[in-house]
Each structure stands twice: as C-alpha cells, then as structure tokens.
C-alpha cells in the first residue's frame, strides 16, 4: 500500500557521514581581503585566454562574507559534515615567514559557526592555490616547496587544533600536477614533460608526507590525517574473477605515481621502468616520508575506467569507451556508477586502506531556472541516485567507506571552465549572489534524512 512506497530504499550504516564539499578559490572570492596574498590561480585567471568564459575567482560565491548563509543551506540539507579548504595565501601571503592573523581568524570563525550548526568540519590544507611567491621560485619543481607546505600545514592545523578532527593535506595531486605542471589547462600551466614532470610530482608527494608529520606534531592524538586524491576508478568490464583481478592490478599501477606511493612508500617497478630515464630522483628517506602512515584516505570519484584481463606485463588492459557512451556536461565525466562500487573496494583491497571517505562526487549539469525559477536538474538527481546506490552496495560488500561529500554545495568557479560548468546542488545567480536549492538538493536532503537511497 501507499505506506510502503519507499520501503525498498537501500540503507547506509548508522553514523555514516553525509556532507558537501567546496574549495577556497572556487567559492570564497574576497581575494584582496584581510591581507590575502596572490596565488597561482589569481595569476592564471588574470592571464587572457586561460579561462573559457574569461572569468576569475575574484568574487566567485562571495562565501568569505556569506558563509553564515551557506552554513544555513547545509543545515537545511541536514548535512553532518562540510569539507572546505584553507587558502594558503590567506595564512602566509608570501608562502612563509610571518602568519597573517586575519586570515587565520576567518577559518576559526567558519569552523566555530559550523560547530554551532552541528556540522563537523573536514579541512583540506591545499586545494591548488599555491602562493604566487613560491611559484616564482619554481613551485612544486622546487623541493623547498614541500618543506614550505609542511610548515604552513603544521601551523594551520595547530591553529585549528581542538576545532577540527579531520585534516586532508592536499586535494588531487594527480590533477594539479597532470593539468597544471604537465598540461596547460590549470595553473600554473607549465606543460612540462619527462623527468621535470616526474620530479614535480615527487616533490608534491614529499610535501604530503612532510605535512602528515607536521600536522601530527602540531595536534592532539585524536586528530585524523589523510588526503583527498582523485582516481579514475578501476572497474572490471563485468563481474568475472579474472577481470576483477585485472582491475585490482590496475588500481595499483594506474595510481603508482600517487596513491600507491603514498600507501606503500615506494614506486612500483613498472612505474620506474615505464619512466626509464625520466624517473624521479629520490632517496630512501624521502620514500619513507611519502609513505607516512595516514588515518584515512579521501577519494574523489567522478568516473572510472573498465578493464579486462590481458596476457601482458601488466596483466590488464583498459577498455576504451565508445564515443556514443553517455557522459555528463563536463566531457571528462563518463557516466559510470560502477565506479562507486569498485573504486573504493578495489583501492582498499589493493592498498590495505581501512577507512575511506568519498571526499568528492557529483556532476555538472546545464539545468537552469525555469519560468517559475525552479532548477529541475533531473540529470544530476539520476547521476547521484545511481552512484549512491552503487556506494551502498559496495559498503554492504565490505568497502570501508565512512562518509560521503557531495561536490558541490554551490555552483562555483569551475577552474578553466569558469562559470560555464555548474556542479552545485544550489543554483547561484552570480549577478546577485542569490542562492536557490535545485531539485538535487531536495533529493540529497531526502537521502540524508532517511540515511538511505
Ligand atoms: C575536481 N579532470 O577536479 C576538483 O577537486 C574540484 O575542485 C573540481 O571542481 C571538481 O573535481 C569538478 O571538476 C577535477 O579533467 C577537475 O579529469 C578536472 C578533472 C578531474 C578532477
């Protein structure tokens, strides 16, 4: 009967953390406020031709001033967690030296307001906004940047000690190194190749490891430390044992430059062999630091790659997506709900990870206000419903996932796509800064309230 219409919903474990995620440069605006220094993203976005719509993060969502309103939005979702990032140039405007107390105060106010709303803060210390002063000295190509990052991370974690229990060192080393150092589509847009690129990647990993140690030294024993890394989730083409084995091997090798190094303290033989003369220079001590033990792993899961077993050195082969396979507005997001089942499960199995948070998942959508001002983003609702269903199934089959942070709370500055790709479950009219929850926000509120999908 009518009472049972939703009885078939799939339940998540008690205590599962439901949250939303943002990043400093994408939402804060206020780039000159209270002594903030310049970051590589200020420099990049103010270089003509770099961003699709010629926009920048000068204003973005003005969350620096409107965070109480944004916390009210989280409250109306019923969310229990919020993942935000600290802008390094607000804390150390030149990368190091004397801290800027007004920048520190902003994050203390933010975190206190979250606690008052009953929302647990999850803090990322680096979401790509490197102080421009450090880029002038080579950025991540310079080994000293790893040390500067650890100094900043330890200082900031110490300032938030007792108010924040979960810290993430960095967001998606794979993306900012791949697109910003290897490619030109993200700041600083260097287009490096070969050894120079592998060395920059190594320095970023070293920065992560040094920061893990610095955060531990600056905070109490209850503090949990991890990172948020992007994966193109490995998935077997279908559930046959040989393809599952192949996908698990891919989980290790396709992430060899990032998660595998961070969790094992070594580069795989195949990684070094494939790079050959372009391999990074490293010491055993550096590898020990990179492998510093963490308490949890954050995974940003948007899409995945299918694998089949293969009779080659790797034991696997990727199955390319035919051009007709469905994808979302952002052309890199292939619709792959399986990624949420297999990604966390196989990464946990391959690397022995005991606690995972999905630190980002979501999609862009072209849905816009209708005649009544409603945003009926049914594509995002279907995307989230399918991915969350697979996450629930994965947890039921043993994937150690403790929480989920939807990207994103708000439409925001989507890097080189500017404001042309909207990831929010809340519509933002950037001319007026008016916020309107979309259909997907109603959907997410319902998921959170029932702890089920
Ligand atoms: C992540 N790709 O970035 C970031 O952590 C967020 O800041 C970003 O807004 C979000 O995903 C949506 O894009 C990515 O091209 C950006 O593969 C691009 C890619 C992957 C992740």
Task: Looking at this protein, list some descriptive labels.
453 residues; alpha/beta; eight-stranded parallel β-barrel; two-stranded antiparallel ribbon; 16 helices; 11 strands; globular; binds 4-nitrophenyl beta-D-glucopyranoside
Instruction: State the secondary-structure class.
Output: alpha/beta
How are the strands ordered across the major sheet? 1-2-3-4-5-6-8-9
The fraction of residues assigned to DSSP E strands is 15-25%
List bound small molecules.
4-nitrophenyl beta-D-glucopyranoside
Order of helices and strands: EHHHEHHEHHEHHEHHHHEEHEHEEEH
The stretches of 5 or more residues where confidence is low (pLDDT under 50) are none
Range of helix content:
25-40%
Shape field: globular
Number of helical segments with 4 or more residues? 16
Gyration radius, rounded = 21 Å
Strands, total number? 11
Gap from first CA to last CA: 20 Å
Largest sheet: 8 strands, parallel, barrel
Mean pLDDT: 98
Task: Give a short overview.
The protein is an alpha/beta fold and 453 residues long. The chain has helices spanning 24-27, 40-45, 63-77, 88-91, 101-116, 132-135, 144-159, 173-182, 194-218, 241-253, 259-264, 269-275, 284-290, 338-351, 378-396, 439-450; strands at residues 17-21, 81-85, 120-126, 166-171, 224-236, 297-309, 316-319, 356-361, 401-407, 426-429, 434-437.
3D architecture notes:
- By secondary structure, the protein is of the alpha/beta class.
- Helix content is 39%, strand content 16%.
- The protein has helices at 24-27, 40-45, 63-77, 88-91, 101-116, 132-135, 144-159, 173-182, 194-218, 241-253, 259-264, 269-275, 284-290, 338-351, 378-396, 439-450, and strands at residues 17-21, 81-85, 120-126, 166-171, 224-236, 297-309, 316-319, 356-361, 401-407, 426-429, 434-437.
- The strands form two sheets. An eight-stranded parallel beta barrel has the order 1-2-3-4-5-6-8-9, surrounded by seven helices. Strands 10-11 form a two-stranded antiparallel sheet.
- Helix 15 links the parallel strand 8 (356-361) and strand 9 (401-407).
- The longest helix has 25 residues, at 194-218.
- The site of 4-nitrophenyl beta-D-glucopyranoside has 12 residues, from loops.
